[in-house]
Amino acid sequence: MAFYQSQMSLPDFNFTVNNVEQDNSGILLFGSDDFFSPTFLYKRENGHFDWITKNKNGEIELAFRISNDWTNFTLYQDNTNTRGERAFREFGSLFSYAVLNHDACVLHGVVMEYNGMGILVTAPSGTGKTTHTRMWRDRENALIINGDRCLCRKVDGKWYAYGMPWSGSSGEYINRKVLINAIVSLKQDSYNHVKSMTALEGTLCLMQRIFAPVWACDMQNSAFDIAEELASTIPMLELYCRPDFESVDVLKEAILNLEKENE
Predict the structure, then answer these.
(1) Distance CA 49, CA 36 (A)
(2) Rounded to the nearest 5 degrees, what angle is found at the Cα of 197, between the Cα atoms of 193 and 203?
(3) Is the dihedral of CA 158, 161, 163, 164 positive or negative?
(4) What is the model's pTM?
(5) Which pairing describes strands 143-146 and 104-114: parallel, antiparallel, or unpaired?
(6) How does DSSP assign 241-256, residue by residue?
(7) Please, which pLDDT band fits residue 106 given cuts at 50, 70 and 90?
(8) pLDDT tier at 7 (50, 70, 90 boundaries)?
(9) If we measure between CA atoms, which residue out of 144, 132, 127, 130 comes closest to residue 246?
(10) CA–CA distance from 241 to each of 140, 184, 244, 254 (Å)?
């Protein structure tokens, strides 16, 4: 409900819960029973898609019908007995793919706001991005807008980061947007220091963090174009750090120096 608004403009996406006609036509684009959570995507003959998850016994848990342009989603089966919680989390993955058609992407990382500046901190799971950004919150009063996923969208030629109601295990999310001023790739090291990244290095880094489907070449191409533009227009830094407050000071100085250069 933190993201509900009673009066909104026309939405980019529509989500409904309804019955649909069974459709076994078409082909399997993606999926395997060997996945930790068996998941399958079918493209049907009339152009729509069916996204289906199953349990280890091969029984359907969730089933979504998706329009051919990935703007309309219908949940037509939910056998999880989780009162919509599992379906909501699963739709978060579908949303991450769908936004690629709207000059937007979702990165694995933390969105924080410091003195009106939007800072994205990305890293593989377990590297320490949550620890580092919470030190920013505790020491610098930074606002964590999302603790696990960065929704980035280009609006009127500028890139913004948004909070959204999917935040991994962090549980931290706020319905807020902020202009992106810097993107930081965090890496563990024995001492704290910052290096600037080239556009190519930044593009390769971001491509590893964008949620993009493996089966759709057009969406993958969109993800690459977005990563390339983000890395070319927004300063990207590599922070090599220990989990201590000095790492906050080192990154803060680097970001403030970027701001001075842009004045």
Answers:
(1) 22
(2) 140
(3) positive
(4) 0.91
(5) antiparallel
(6) E-SSHHHHHHHHHHHH
(7) very high
(8) low
(9) 132
(10) 17, 12, 8, 13
- For the cut 80, the answer to whether the pLDDT of residue 44 exceeds it is yes
Phi then psi for residue 103, to 5 deg, are 55, 40
**Distance in angstroms (rounded) separating the CA atoms of residues 174 and 155:** 19
The H or E element containing residue 200 is helix 199-207
Per the listing, tokens 């220990």 go with 242
What DSSP string runs through 21-88?
Answer: -----SEEEEEETTSSS-EEEEE-TTS-EEEEEE-TTS-EEEEEEE-TTS-EEEEEEE-S-STTHHHH
pLDDT of residue 6: 63
pLDDT digits (tens, 9 = 90+) for 128-185: 999 999 999 999 999 999 999 999 999 999 999 999 999 988 889 999 999 999 999 9
Tokens matching residue 74: 């219908």
